[in-house]
Design brief:
Distance between the termini: 42 Å
Order of helices and strands: HHHHHHHHH
Radius of gyration: 29 Å
Structural class: mainly alpha
Number of helices: 9
Number of strands: 0
Helix content: over 70%
C-alpha cells in the first residue's frame, strides 16, 4: 500500500514538473525570439503583458489564495487518480481475485469429498474467492440451502469491496471538472471586475481569462483519462465477478451429497 502511495506521489510530481518545464521552455523561447528580433531590427511579436506574466507559474500565483488552493486540489486529484489506477491494476485481476492454485486445490479436495481439506486450502490462500468458499464450507453441516445463502451473502460483500476501489476513480473523474469549473468562474469574475473598472489593462484581462481556461483544461485533463480508466476496470471487474460466481457454484455442487464425519 505504501509503495503505491509513494509511486503515485512521484508520478504526480514528475507530471507537474514536466508541465511546468514545457510551459516555461515555450515562454523562454518566445522571450529569446523577442531579443533576437530586437538585436536584428526585425519586428518583434507584440508582448501580451509584463515579462513572464503569461507563464504557467504566474497563472497559478496570479489567481490568489483561492486559485492556489484550486491548483493544489487539481494536483491532488491527479495524484489520487494515479494511486487508484495503480491500485486497481494490481488488485482487479483474475489471478489475484481467484488464484488458479486455489481453484485446483479446492477442486481436488472436493473430488475426494474432503470438505475440511478444501476449507484448509482456502485458509492457506486468502482472497475474495477463498472468503466466499470459506463461508460455504463453514456451514456444510446445515444443508445445501444454507450453504448457498452463505455463499451469496459473502459474494455480495466481496463484490462490493472490489467495486469500492473503482468508485474512487469515478469520484476523482467527477470532482476534477468541478474544480476546473470553479476556477473558470473565479477567472471570469476577475475578468469582469477588470472591465468594470473602466478602460481595462489588456494584459490583466488576458491573464484573468487564461486563469479560467487553464483550470478548465487542468480539470478535463485529469477527468478524461480517469473516466476512461474507470470504465475499463469496471468492465474487467464485472467479467471477473461473473466468472467467479459461476466457478463457485460449480465447485460447491458436490456439497449436496457430502457429509462431514468427525474424526
Amino acid at each position: 500500500m505504501m509503495k503505491n502511495v509513494r509511486m503515485a506521489i512521484v508520478m504526480t510530481a514528475v507530471a507537474a514538473m514536466a508541465c511546468f518545464y514545457v510551459t516555461e521552455t515555450v515562454y523562454a523561447q518566445d522571450d529569446a525570439g523577442a531579443l533576437v528580433a530586437a538585436d536584428t531590427g526585425a519586428a518583434a511579436p507584440p508582448p501580451a503583458s509584463a515579462p513572464g506574466s503569461g507563464s504557467f507559474i504566474h497563472v497559478i500565483l496570479g489567481g490568489g489564495f483561492l486559485g492556489i488552493m484550486l491548483w493544489l486540489a487539481l494536483f491532488g486529484a491527479s495524484g489520487a487518480f494515479v494511486y487508484f489506477a495503480v491500485d486497481c491494476a494490481l488488485t482487479v485481476k483474475a489471478e489475484r481475485i481467484m488464484p488458479q492454485a486455489l481453484v485446483n486445490n479446492v477442486t481436488e479436495a472436493m473430488a475426494e469429498g474432503d470438505v475440511l481439506k478444501a476449507l484448509q486450502c482456502c485458509e492457506n490462500d486468502p482472497g475474495p474467492l477463498a472468503n466466499i468458499l470459506t463461508a460455504g464450507f463453514s456451514h456444510v453441516e446445515e444443508g445445501f440451502d444454507v450453504i448457498q445463502e452463505s455463499i451469496g451473502t459473502a459474494a455480495d460483500l466481496e463484490t462490493e469491496q472490489i467495486m469500492q476501489k473503482l468508485t474512487w476513480l469515478s469520484v476523482v473523474g467527477n470532482l476534477a471538472p468541478m474544480l476546473g469549473l470553479l476556477g473558470t468562474v473565479q477567472g471570469m469574475i476577475a475578468a469582469f471586475g477588470t472591465l468594470a473598472g473602466g478602460a481595462p489593462d489588456i494584459g490583466v484581462l488576458a491573464l484573468n481569462i487564461s486563469q479560467a481556461l487553464y483550470t478548465t483544461a487542468g480539470g478535463l485533463t485529469i477527468a478524461v483519462p480517469c473516466v476512461a480508466v474507470y470504465y475499463v476496470f469496471r468492465n474487467t471487474a464485472s467479467k471477473i465477478i461473473l466468472k467467479m460466481e459461476a466457478l463457485t457454484m460449480e465447485m460447491i455442487k458436490d456439497l449436496r451429497n457430502v457429509e462431514v464425519v468427525d474424526g
